[in-house]
Specification:
222 residues; alpha+beta; Lipocalin; Arylsulfatase, C-terminal domain; globular; transferase; EC 2.3.1.118; arylamine N-acetyltransferase activity
Length: 222
Amino acid sequence: MLTARRGGYCFEQNGLFERALRETGFTVRSLLGRVVLTNPTSLPPRTHRLLLVELQGEPWIADVGFGGQTLTAPIRLQAECEQQTPHGEYRLRQEGNNWILQFRHHDHWQSMYCFDLGVQQQSDYVMGNFWSAHWPQSHFRHHLLMCRHLPDGGKLTLTNFHFTHYQEGHAIEQRNVPDVASLYALLQEQFGLGVDDAKHGFTEAELAAVMAAFDTHPEAGK
């Protein structure tokens, strides 16, 4: 992710961030959450990795791996307290031992994931990561997903061939990328991915094969 500018998801990004925080002197440990962004009818498994960080004796939540709604600043572990970040407003709700992270979406609060403060083992993260990467119905197996948060508070997102530029929570540009060649260039120019890295990059032909598999899968585009 650092030298080759490759993307990643929560297990990789927050795993790396946890190590960086610990090696710079912070007290930090990972937690596991259940993603409820789509309002599921039953609780899904624990497949989201986030961080609990202690700063001057106070607990904070940090998370650099939740795509378009990623926290771009840490928030206090405090219930019913609206907290502003460079890319939106968030709050935590508490229900017994469980916490629910929400973000303000226009005129309402949308739940992102729920978690508790229980200690997890390394095997728990291995299991969650494996399930996310290999379960046939996993969202990550059927979509190319990208997000880049901008210094001015905006963000760029990509879902397969659909590119969107958001500013202050509103889409100011939307377009469908016409072909794989344009998509390959977009990954470099807009998202900064090192697709041409000699060791960890990939060719335009390899990207075309991946996108073709997405397009023909029954779950593609959903």
